[in-house]
Each structure stands twice: as structure tokens, then as C-alpha cells.
Amino acid sequence: MKRIESAFEHALFASRWLMAPVYMGLVLALVVLLVKFGKEIYHLFANIMEATGGEMIIGVLSLVDIALIMSLLVIIMFSGYENFVSKMEDLHSHADRPEWMGHIGFSDLKIKLIGSIVAISGIELLKAFMNVGNLPDRHLAWMVGIHLTFVVSGLLYALMDRLHGKGH
């Protein structure tokens, strides 16, 4: 019976490697976002002479939005892989290794995720306000409501994390 239990536990532990292709998929998502970023920057420069100030701001905000999403994906890939699949031992002495790598736990990851979602939502809301004349009030109201939901959720996550941390 002990041998069966041990085999089951080893199989269960090895199953974490089923997540490795998911992280490779996120690398492919970075490539997709990089192409989107290139398209946006090309469009920005192609229309630099005809675009209004508001259109340029919306274009730059779109670039910031993509950069935030890409940064978030990198954080999720590195910390998720190290937390759930395997440590990147060979990279510990790498000169370019980010300081936070290996130090972000699941709780920290949730806080960074909701913070990024709030920032991305805020940028989308700002882009909508820059185009307020072309959007119906109902659409704007939904965007504000969704953004506020993200903000409140982020605050509640942070509060729960803080309360949980004080118990230790």
C-alpha cells in the first residue's frame, strides 16, 4: 500500500510539468503582442501629420497598454513557472535576472495581477474619455462601473493579503 501511495505522489508531483506548455503559450502571446505593438507604432508614425493631439494621445496610451500587458505576462510566466513547475537554478547568477524573480509568491502574484488589471482598465477608460463625443453614455457608464469594480477588488485583495500576513 505504501508503494502505491508513493507512486501516486510521485505522479502527482510530476504532473506539474503539464503546465510547462501553458507558459510556452504565454511566450507565444508575447510574440503576438509584439506584432500588435509594431502595428500600433507604425500606425502612429504613419498618421503623425494628420492626427489630432487626442488621436496621438490615444495611440500612445495604446502602446502603454500593450507594454503593461506584456510586462504582466513576463511576471506571470517567470513567477508561475518558478512557483508551480521548477526553479530556474541555472539563471540565478545571470546578470540580467530581475531582482523580483524567485521572490514573488502566489499572493504577491495576485496583487500584481489585480494592480495591472486596474492600470490597464484605467488606460482603457482614459482612452474612452478622450473619445467621449463618439461613445454613448451607457457605454461610458459601464466602463466606469467595471473600472470601479476592479479598483474595489484590488483594494479588497490587498486588505485580505495584509490581514492574512499579520496573522503570521
In words, what does this structure look like?
- There is one protein chain.
- This protein has 168 residues and is mainly alpha-helical.
- The chain is 76% helix and 0% strand.
- The protein has helices spanning 2-14, 20-46, 53-84, 106-130, 137-166.
- Helix 4 (106-130) runs antiparallel to helix 5 (137-166).
- It is extended and about 70 Å long.
- The mean pLDDT is 87.
Which helices and strands appear, and what pairs or packs with what?
Elements: H1 2-14, H2 20-46, H3 53-84, H4 106-130, H5 137-166
Shape: extended
Number of distinct helices: 5
Q: How many E strands?
A: 0
Strand content: under 5%
How does the major sheet shape up?
Answer: none
State the share of residues found in helices, binned by percent. over 70%
Q: Which secondary-structure class do the elements indicate?
A: mainly alpha
End-to-end Cα distance, whole Å, is 37 Å
Q: Compute the gyration radius: what is it?
A: 21 Å
Mean pLDDT: 87
Give the SSE order as H and E letters.
HHHHH
- Poorly predicted runs: none
